[in-house]
Amino acid sequence: MTGVECPSICQLDTGEVLLIQWQFAWYTLEAARKLWRESPTAASFVLPSRSSWLGQRPTSEADWDAAPLPWVRGDAGLFASRSTDSGETWDETRPVPIAPYARGYSPRPPCQLADGSLLLALDSHDERGVLFVLRSLDRGRTWASPPVVVSAAFPLAEPTIVALPSGKVVVLSRHERTRYLHQHDSFDGGATWSPPRQTPIWGYPAHLVRLADGRLLVVYGVRRAPFGIRACISTDDGASWDAAAELVIRDDMPNPNLGYPTLVPLGDGRLFTAYYGEDADHVTSIMGSTFTL
Asked: Which one of 22, 51, 171, 248 is most buried, by most CB atoms within 10 A?
């Protein structure tokens, strides 16, 4: 059985809609253990715990003996689908090559460069913590290989990417320990990247967009009291961020089980962000907020 983790979607300048999805697979404990025994270095499995599906990777028979659940998570790959009629129908779902990585994970869509090519920012979602980009020259039908490494500075993860008219490309990612967003810049269309630098923005994961007036806006979850969703602006293409004027979209959420906001300009000056969180009855729900700057 397969499942989809954090799909992302965007509309290209041609009007086509591109859907990216990382898929994972579920195995019975017995089936996964058999595959692992046949090739323990090649098989990518995670033994979930009773408190988290993240779990741990098995390194020995003892790990399998101690597995607390009768099922195991594996990786099924990264895939792309295209629609030419605003999502009414979709073409064939095609695999996206991510080798040498087993996973290509991000909840954020690719950006489109001035020449029409796409850059998709991903992370390896494993112990290595590698950020990398893939390039497509044909609107997501095929993707060039191998990936270009943005950073191998673990523990950065869950990148969001935007291309600017100047040719600069900006990637923001979460830092798993400090919880600050970190930034990488490219000035050659994603061929090379600057080392990570910490921004003054505390929150994660982020979604970065360029507004019609040229400003950059990043929206993110805040998983410390007061819990909620916030945003921050850059007026200089990401050279600096006005964290002192951080926008509080909401700060009335009950606990840190929240986040992954996605931002959409509505065209009338308003912005809409969708995210998840718990409601008053502690039911995890999809929520949304409309706001203006």
From this structure: 171
